Amino acid sequence: MTISISFSLVFFNLCLNKYIPSHNASAIVFSKSNPSYSSLYRAYMRNSRFSTNSTPKPAVIITPLEESHVSAAVICTQKVGFHLKVRGGGHDYEGLSYVSDEPFFMLDMFNMRSISVDIANEMAWVQAGATLGELYYNIWQRSNVHGFPAGVCPTVGAAGHISGAGYGTMLRKYGVSADQVVDAKIVDVNGKILNRQAMGEDLFWAIRGGGAASFGVVLAYKVKLVSVPETVTVFRVERFLGDNDTTDIAFKWQSVAPATDKNLFMRMLLQPMPRNNRTTLRVTIKALYLGDANGVVALLGNEFPELQLTKEQCIEMRWIDSVLWWANFEVGTPLTKLLDRDANYAFFLKRKSDYVQTPIPRDGLELLWEKIIELRHVGMGLNPYGGRMSEIKATEIALPHRAGNLYKIQYGINWEEPGDDADMDYRSRARKLHKFMTQFVSKNPRRAYLNYRDIDIGTTKSWSYEEGKVYGESYYNGNYDRLVDVKTATDPNNFFRNAQSIPPRSSKTT
């Protein structure tokens, strides 16, 4: 096998030099014998579960500097018979962009991170290797009244985030990140660089919410910017179990948060917390309002009096400062912090997701409090839908989760202890809470969010239509079949694949 890989690498480099003759291929290709290999591999590994010695690693890491390098990598990887993984920010929770059971090369896009902002036309081109923080910062440099509706973690890679739909604190006002995409550049299985017109509307539809990793390598997205007021308001309100109104607030949140003014996004966090030498539950309402403090206090005084929000609990700031606040930085943190890629920073972690379409009854919430306290360590983030999300058709882009959903749940658990025993213990806690919630969440299918990648839903080894349907209907619901058709038309031999990718059909009648 070593001899085979060695010969493959020789031929791979020869192939690259043929397709990019103006560059020495060795400058962008790092084999395991290269002193920089280990640091490159670890730099954007955001989940320490995959940092063990036994984790399968790429035979080489390719770090393209130009679009032509990506095309050459796709062509040459196929010529030597390897599989290709594509990594951006590395935040895919199951490590599917840098782990594989098959011999593989990894294409790491971190060098391709240019951002071009056109304020006059309210557009921006964002290369695949850019982070959300870099995008936000570049927009702010040119305008204080524009933003982009995407995630709260600045180190997330823009292309992966958008291709899986992407969402953030302006979800209810503007929809998901992928709703703002007007053009894209992608390298297809033949190594061709295609824009929207060249790729056609079916592929363009698929790479907005369907996960681009099944179809090609995204080079860049062109996105619409959105308007934000000069002053926005944030607030955080906390209650602990035992406070008289904790369950009342959580229960009422379910009806208010998805139905209130589109300018208000209120996330509810349910977290087990140590208090007075025992584990209890903390309920936190964390919010962004696209307006001033007087406006949100008056709004919630009428719609959500149980919260007892006061102006003193609110902080008015610029939208760009709210980005840092949501990322848990202190007020006054320099905006250049958004440019910090925070390489080599990772927890052991597991994430899962759900959608809720009917409010959980009060007695159900009380049972949930008991389960969270019993399991400890596992928290839940509840993100309201409604607003713009209920207005966009489920078939508009590949993301199907629109009207009918009150809110989305993210289950999260982090730990620091290495080893299989810890891994098994903490992951099982997340699964137990997820199983408990079966009675309260969507059914037939039980829905999940692609960017909260979770292999517990199902995986494939044969990449058959039926295997893919197990997880495909959870992530894509009624859009799964159309995604399969796009895959069949664009990558019939299934070069772009992972454990939860879209499979091609063996025939139209499969």
From TrEMBL:
Which residues constitute the signal peptide according to the record?
Answer: 1-17
Report the superkingdom from the record: Eukaryota
Q: Which UniProt keywords apply?
A: FAD, Flavoprotein, Glycoprotein, Nucleotide-binding, Oxidoreductase, Signal
Which Pfam families does the entry mention? Answer: BBE, FAD_binding_4
SUPFAM superfamilies recorded for this chain?
A: FAD-binding/transporter-associated domain-like
Cofactor(s) named in the record = FAD
Taking every annotated instance into account, which residue ranges of this chain make up the domain FAD-binding PCMH-type? 54-228
List the PANTHER family. OS08G0158400 PROTEIN (PTHR32448)
Family recorded in the similarity comment: Belongs to the oxygen-dependent FAD-linked oxidoreductase family.
Tell me what this protein is called: FAD-binding PCMH-type domain-containing protein
* UniProt source species: Hibiscus sabdariffa
